[in-house]
Amino acid sequence: MIFQYRKKKIEQLKSSFGDFKKEEYNFDLIKLYFKNKKRNSATTVISDRTCADLDFEELFMFLDRTHSKPGQQYLYNQLRNTQSSHNFEQDEKIISQLINDHSIFEIQYLLSKLKHDDGYYIASLFQEKQPEAPTWFKLARYSPLLVIASLILFPYIPQFLFVLMGLIVFNLIVHYWNKKNLIHYSASIPQLIKLKEIAKHLYKYHALKAINKELLQSTKVIDSIKNKMLLFQLEAKVQGEFQALFWFIIELYKILFLLEPIILFSVSKQLRSKGREIEKIFDFVGKTDALLSIASLRHGLYSYCQPQITTEAEIEAQEMYHPLIPDCIPNNLSTHGRSILLTGSNMSGKTTFIRTVGINILTGLTINTCFAKEASFSYFAIESAIRISDDLLNSKSYYLEEVQTIHSMIKKSTERYNLFLLDEIFKGTNTIERIASGKAVLSYLAKNNNLVFVSTHDIELAELLKDEYELYHFCETVDNSSIDFDYQLKKGPLKNRNAIRILEMNDYPKSIIEDAIAISRDADMRQVKMMSDL
User: Fold this and answer.
1) I want to staple 72 with a disulfide (CB 3.0 to 4.6 A). Which of 11, 66, 83, 143 is the partner?
2) pLDDT in tens, 243-258
3) Domain end (from 275, 299, 323)
């Protein structure tokens, strides 16, 4: 029966390989490992703001093909961190070996045994502080011996009944006082035991040994405290499988002899000294799942590449596309070491293209996968100011929020290679100051081997930056009855203005159209004067 189930499950995994996952995502739990992870100096964290700008949660749901909760947390953390020390060559070798020897689905089957939500809490065993026994608990340890003594002496000395009742009341108080600590472990400990067993099975696959050649030493350390942890497995099974009467008997037994708090504090003490070994096992299983997830993702894509990482602060890409947009129009890009300024009307594709660049750099640096035919770029830290809004709770206007965000970019611009992504810089202020301030900031950000991708409606800004930035644009075709967007990146600044023409197409009164044209001509003359003043 078990063999038939296993065979059926593996066949299902084969048929769904490369498919998009259909499940609910609890990002509060998925983020736990990432939020508490200690990082080295070579790691650059993708900020919450940049995540929001790049629609990171939607992106993660598309990329995620993991089968275990630790694997899902590991992949999330991997995508939120870019680091120059990542060994993609070894990762690709492991993926290739697992696909070639057809063991990938057997491994996915093993990983799927960690799909319960309780698996999210394993990381807390090595990332969070474990509970310590209070000083008074040293005395409580003698309570079980006194209970046994009272039970033995009670038939001979009836007065020991009062001693026994007092001990039971004391143990009852301590037992339920400790329940808050038990809740912490009732989810994580059974999953840790399962994680360790699965890690040992995974280690039998030769390709996976390259992830951690000393894994078995870590599993032996956990084996040394396995017997003490069995109490937490029993707790989980009683709650889920046995009837209330049996649960009551077990609970009474634990109260009489203070089993839960005594074992819990003993286990927590050992976990504090063995946290590093637990983390090694977690990372081994998590990385295995993440690598298989990357393989499944690639299998489901119509086009992808492994990027070439260079030392030059530039981006080259052929047929690059946005993975979340069905039938997305691909575009070629060559920065030639210069930043990019995009012009174009609303809905023409400017902001989407900027996000496309950001997402491809992100996935290229974290999972060695780009949504393009070819791609090459350097290690960039990604910073963005795309989706900015008023912060009413902190009494910040849109403009002030934007000023502070861009100021943060300015401070980071001299620290490392940066990729700055901006949409409509300083659109929260008036035209003259927007153009003047925008030009000054964009010139500053483009120095020190940084690359800037910025969109604007201000043709004047493009004119001011033409010697420092590569100019590109998106445009639409307007005829008598329709507006068509081709979403193709084009060289040079936008020259056509169709906004008033679109008003006319939508049957705005003739007087409005004539008035708008006249005002536009006057504005052009004022802009020419402003440019000469600048």
Assistant:
1) 66
2) 566 667 777 877 877 8
3) 299
